[in-house]
């Protein structure tokens, strides 16, 4: 083989694959998909549109937030003004509510002819102590406005039936701001001192109900902090009044602003004496009167008729006589206010106590 033939054969072997590929492409009709540049342009346009929409929404949200803030600030200012107005209205209402009580107190002070010698005000009660000087006797008036169930209670001497202690000792033992002697008593042969007749503590009878006899009357407070009392022949009649505590003595002085007859024995035996009286006003505030007397012989102190007149003059509605004579005791701030006719306080089985 000459050199020329060798070159020709070599070129044919080299070019043959390329010629085959070209022929295959020509006769196979293959299509080649070129990238869609318009699609990418549309996608880019869509992203830009969404960005613009987001910016617009963000701007609107900022505007709404600013408007909301302004609205909240306006409501807050309105709330502050409303709260201030409500506070002013409440203060005005309190003033209106308290005005009748203030007028009432001024009237009582005027009728008693003096300003309070002592007074105590707390969430539980308001106390006012007045000194009275009548042509025939010297007395002390304690006005009580009980504002809660914790304002007052009755206690037994040393908290035991048959035991006794002074009102001062009872007040100190309980931490009471004031105290008054309560019902009558009876002593047995051993020297024990028992409450007289029907007596109640905490809504329960100390030793059962006893029908009223010999002009005796029950007097106490019910579960609504209202003064109740009178003569009761049946327990159910007393129970209807929802008694909380109370004691017994004699006689009834006033009922619904009307004088009650004084039993003959109590008109003269004794005629005058140290006395302790409890009464209530139309607004359910209480008034205690304690009068001084030198002894129990009937020559000093007040008569029950005089106290009836004084109570009516002060506007008292219902009133009852409590144990008197040497039993009359008035304690305030740990001091003995009245002058006990025994020269010292008498140990007693029942006491009314008042708490701040």
Automatic annotation (TrEMBL):
Entry's transmembrane regions: 12-30
InterPro entries according to UniProt: NAGPA
Domain Phosphodiester glycosidase: 174-355
Keywords: Glycosidase, Hydrolase, Membrane, Transmembrane, Transmembrane helix
Superkingdom of origin organism: Bacteria
Pfam families associated with the record: NAGPA (PF09992)
UniProt keyword annotation of Transmembrane present: yes
Keyword DNA repair included in the entry's annotation: no
One of the record's GO molecular function terms: hydrolase activity, acting on glycosyl bonds
PANTHER family given in the database record: N-ACETYLGLUCOSAMINE-1-PHOSPHODIESTER ALPHA-N-ACETYLGLUCOSAMINIDASE (PTHR40446:SF2)
Full protein name: Phosphodiester glycosidase family protein
The organism of origin for this protein: Paenibacillus agricola
């Amino acid at each position: 083989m000459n050199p020329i033939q060798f070159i020709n054969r070599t070129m044919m072997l080299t070019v043959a694959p390329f010629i085959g590929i070209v022929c295959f492409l020509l006769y196979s009709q293959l299509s080649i998909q070129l990238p869609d540049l318009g699609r990418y342009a549309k996608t880019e346009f869509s992203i830009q549109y969404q960005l613009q929409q987001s910016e617009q929404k963000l701007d609107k949200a900022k505007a709404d937030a600013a408007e909301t803030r302004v609205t909240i600030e306006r409501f807050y200012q309105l709330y502050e003004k409303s709260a201030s107005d409500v506070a002013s209205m409440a203060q005005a209402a309190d003033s209106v509510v308290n005005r009748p009580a203030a007028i009432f107190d001024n009237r009582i002070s005027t009728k008693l002819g003096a300003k309070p010698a002592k007074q105590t005000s707390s969430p539980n009660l308001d106390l006012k102590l007045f000194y009275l000087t009548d042509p025939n006797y010297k007395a002390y008036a304690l006005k009580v406005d009980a504002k809660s169930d914790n304002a007052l209670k009755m206690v037994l001497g040393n908290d035991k039936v048959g035991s006794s202690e002074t009102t001062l000792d009872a007040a100190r033992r309980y931490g009471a701001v004031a105290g008054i002697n309560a019902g009558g008593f009876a002593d047995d042969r051993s020297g024990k001192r028992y409450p007289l007749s029907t007596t109640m503590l905490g809504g329960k009878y100390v030793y059962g109900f006893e029908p009223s006899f010999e002009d005796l009357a029950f007097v106490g407070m019910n579960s609504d902090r209202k003064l109740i009392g009178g003569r009761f022949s049946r327990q159910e009649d007393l129970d209807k009044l929802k008694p909380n505590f109370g004691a017994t003595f004699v006689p009834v002085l006033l009922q619904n602003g009307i004088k009650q007859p004084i039993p003959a024995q109590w008109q003269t035996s004794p005629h005058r004496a140290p006395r302790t009286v409890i009464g209530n006003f139309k607004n359910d505030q209480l008034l205690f009167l304690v009068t001084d007397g030198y002894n129990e012989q009937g020559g000093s102190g007040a008569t029950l008729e005089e106290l009836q007149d004084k109570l009516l003059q002060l506007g008292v509605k219902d009133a009852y006589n409590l144990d008197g004579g040497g039993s009359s005791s008035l304690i305030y701030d740990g001091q003995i206010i009245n002058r006990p006719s025994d020269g010292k306080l008498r140990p007693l089985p029942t006491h009314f106590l008042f708490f701040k």
